[in-house]
Sequence to fold (193 residues):
Amino acid sequence: MIEDLAKEEFEARKDYYRGYDMEVYRCRICGEVYIGTEKPRSCPFCGAHKNYLVVANEWNMIKATSLSDVSRKNLQKALELEIDNTNFYRGVSQKTENIYVEGMFKGLSKVEREHASTICKHLGITKPESDVGFDKAVESDEENISESNRREKRAVRFYLEARNEATESEIKEFFKALMEIESDHIRLTEQGI
Fold:
């Protein structure tokens, strides 16, 4: 019965999907999978730009086989930054009464959480549980947006420095991707409400 309904639905929509073949893409930054008829402009999970999304059978994650002490230190600092921002954005999304601001910060929180998880993959560690930053959210949407703009600018400056200090080409590329993503977040916060 269910198979007949599925087959009937597929047949009814076959013409609709003609020319729209489904493809499986994978992000070289976070490793997540996106399935769609075309490559999105950015990874829906970590925000990496389109050039980091590849057809799944061509995928290999950007990851160094070994880390210098400097890159390890910078990845650890990046993890702390991303966890703090994740929790701050989560706090803002729960405090605001503005549905747009709630959605914006919920989305930013998810992206920053994905960055933290990806950094843990590079470090070969389990992501630590933490609420650091959550209590920094205030009642004012305007103040929270200004604070998020400062946080994103600080992240871009740090990732530029970390990229320049990295000796591993993969880590340089990873920090470059994070700079691009956080720059997108700056543009978002500068648009306001």
Observations:
- The radius of gyration is 19 Å.
- The beta strands are 23-27, 33-36, 53-55.
